[in-house]
């Protein structure tokens, strides 16, 4: 089993945070928990569905199993989660109205799972693991937990504020077995962790007697396209079969609307306000 640093727990009262405090936490600390984002009934339905999914073991342990990138095609409820209203409401406050969906993954940590090494999901030139999707400069991954995260059952693990570092130790291609200032984040089933993709994170070993299931959905603002337009395109027939309120998130994953190499110093019609960068945004209620 992987040797871990002594476990320090995040004891934030997540339910008490205002909207501004939620924005502040993910921007400053690199992550956020929103409790009860899924109801108990939704959790139960998803667990029935995940029990039917074929999975594969990861390369470092047969106790960590996944189904990558296609879970949203497997059942209408997985697709509906893409447009989950409370999630999209918060992402709109955080990222703006024009949001692109990049994919969904199912992960299961079984008893004996050794823990996921500390890593980032954001890799500015792409990588073998994340492809060119990892090069999108702004991404938020939403991790829906279908089981309680306890100290024994693979709680989320994070190095707060690591995404803010300019030091070589923050090289997004680095991986760490552990870190002396890492924090474990317990949460109830139905809660979701919102993660800045540049923040170093992982999870703890599963030393308990039950498994831990998670659905991970990845988003970015429309302007933040990849460094190379080489993300595989969506299957047009499958996208066309989705309801319109879900289909709106399936734009070309390679689009880069905010990219203009030749922009001038003083473009015409510059705005004079931008609420998304207000220093007072952390005071919103």
Give a topology summary.
Elements: H1 19-29, E1 31-34, H2 40-50, E2 56-58, E3 61-68, H3 76-82, H4 85-95, E4 99-109, E5 116-119, E6 140-145, E7 156-158, E8 183-185, E9 192-196, E10 201-203, E11 212-221, H5 236-240, H6 244-247
Antiparallel strand pairs: 1-9, 2-3, 3-4, 4-11, 5-10, 6-9, 6-11, 7-8, 7-10
Describe the model:
By secondary structure, the protein is of the alpha+beta class. The chain has a single domain (21-257), classed as Jelly Rolls (Sandwich). Helices cover 17% and strands 21% of the residues. The strands form two sheets. The chain has a seven-stranded antiparallel beta sheet with strand order 1-9-6-11-4-3-2. A four-stranded antiparallel beta sheet has the order 5-10-7-8, with no helix packed on it. The chain is globular and about 60 Å long. The termini are far apart.
Total tally of structural domains: 1
CATH architecture: Sandwich
What is the ordering of alpha helices and beta strands? HEHEEHHEEEEEEEEHH
Work out the radius of gyration. Answer: 19 Å
- Backbone structural class: alpha+beta
Q: Biggest sheet: strands, sense, closure?
A: 7 strands, antiparallel
The CATH class designation is Mainly Beta
β-strand number: 11
Quick rundown:
The protein is an alpha+beta fold. Helices cover 17% and strands 21% of the residues. It is built from six helices and eleven strands.
Features:
4-stranded antiparallel beta sheet, 6 helices, Jelly Rolls, 7-stranded antiparallel beta sheet, 11 strands, 285 residues, alpha+beta
């Amino acid at each position: 089993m992987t040797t871990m640093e002594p476990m320090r727990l995040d004891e934030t009262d997540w339910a008490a945070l205002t909207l501004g405090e939620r924005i502040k936490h993910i921007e400053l600390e690199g992550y956020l928990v929103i409790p009860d984002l899924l109801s108990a009934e939704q959790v139960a339905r998803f667990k029935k569905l995940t029990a039917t999914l074929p999975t594969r073991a990861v390369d470092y342990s047969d106790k960590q199993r996944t189904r990558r990138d296609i879970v949203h095609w497997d059942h209408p409820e997985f697709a509906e989660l893409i447009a989950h209203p409370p999630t999209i409401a918060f992402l709109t406050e955080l990222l703006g109205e024009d949001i692109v969906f990049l994919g969904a993954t199912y992960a299961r940590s079984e008893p004996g799972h050794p823990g996921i090494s500390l890593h980032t999901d954001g890799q500015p030139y792409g990588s073998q693991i994340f492809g060119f999707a990892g090069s999108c400069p702004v991404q938020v991954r939403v991790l829906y937990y279908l089981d309680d995260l306890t100290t024994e059952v693979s709680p989320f693990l994070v190095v707060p504020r690591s995404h803010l570092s300019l030091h070589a130790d923050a090289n997004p291609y680095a991986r760490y077995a552990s870190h002396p200032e890492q924090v474990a984040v317990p949460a109830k089933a139905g809660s979701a962790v919102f993660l800045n993709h540049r923040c170093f994170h992982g999870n703890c070993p599963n030393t308990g007697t039950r498994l831990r299931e998670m659905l991970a959905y990845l988003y970015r603002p429309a302007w933040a396209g990849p460094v190379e337009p080489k993300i595989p395109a969506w299957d047009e027939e499958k996208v066309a079969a989705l309801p319109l309120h879900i289909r709106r998130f399936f734009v070309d994953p390679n689009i880069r609307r905010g990219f203009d190499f030749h922009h001038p110093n003083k473009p015409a019609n510059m705005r004079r306000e931008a609420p998304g960068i207000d220093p007072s945004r952390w005071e919103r209620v």
